[in-house]
Design a protein that fits this description.
Length: 439
Amino acid sequence: MAGGGISVDYSLKGLPRMLPGLIFCIAFGWLALQWDATMHSYERDYKEAASVLKGAREGQAFPGYAEYKKAREDKYQASLARYDQGLEKEKPRKPYLLKQRDYEQVTAASAQPLRFRFSALMIQFQMTYVAVLLLVGMLIRNTVGIPRILEAGTMAARPIIKPGIVILGAYYLWSDVLRVGVIGLLLVVAFVMGTCILISIWGKRGKVDDGLAGVMAAGAGVCGVSAAVAVAPVVNAKPRDFFYAIGTILLFGTLCLFTFPYIGQALGMSQPVFGAWVGTAILNTAQLVAAATWYGHDALLTANIINIVRVGFIPLIVLWAIYFYVIKPATSEECNPQKLNVLQVVKEKFPLFILGFFVMVSLNELGFFTQAHRDILGKDLLKIFFAVGFAGVGLNISFGDLRKAGGKAFAIGFIAATLKAVLAAAAVMLIGADAFTVK
């Protein structure tokens, strides 16, 4: 998730330089969360109003507000009694009621208020806080621009997504990780490693520079920027090669981010299936998490597990790069292969936030987290980390950087990534939701 080769000083010495941009991202994220909460609240009102209006369309008179509340409460108590008797498997939820002012407005007009219809449309098009942060952030960056005083802070905000991924561990049990992870492992082997190897061989035959082909293969095969950064020193990538590959990765990921949720809906993908698809197909971790969060929470749970399996392949991709770009050419030239400390490479490249995720899963397995804990972690802390991080992501999506992708290497990377996405969509739909559902 480090991006574009721009360094950020995360020490206390660098804090004053980062602080204005971080404060801006926090404020931007807070506004997006308020939007999200308001839209979801109005959407619940929309659904309840639709239920009220349905009765009227069937010829029933609108009851008074007191009668409306009592009817809903009686229905809930009846369902609760059946649950207590073992006649229903799931405990019923308390009914959601319109406020009296809203109820009277709906019944008087026999129609949905504009704000209810607008919110339902926004939720239908997945315009959640993630989409707002990305779209508005990208608009700001490419129109009025980001003042220089905010640049360091907006860059520093992006890795704040990673603690959010760690927090997601509180939602998993090892049984879920192992069950979905086995399928994820097969998807990783087939698509991630396959894409990486395909681009490496194709790039070599197409006489693409090893540095560019190496970072392109890692980025398009594994997880975008992080993998490209990990492989770049192994293949001696030039700054030009690195920026070129990152531009390609960000362009593909951005297109996927804003199209996959709608493609998933058009194909009728359930949330777990969509999560498995984006976990396999979208290149950059931030964009993967954004697309899955955009689609729904269950999609995010599955996507994160698939991504965990995928990110775990970074050391193996580094080893592949060492073999294909260092050892294999040296062997073919009948020279002694260069001696490399493979264990040290793996140690340096393995993402530490994955270990944090594993710790949270283990604590959840031991019963450390109650549902109340998960509500605090998931509904509050996770959204805060994601909101601040995605504010930084959106504010750093530059059209100029994306235009740096082009030429033969871009075509190879883009075609291979597209092929992976198409085949992965077919595979996850064939496997079905049961294999990817996280309880």
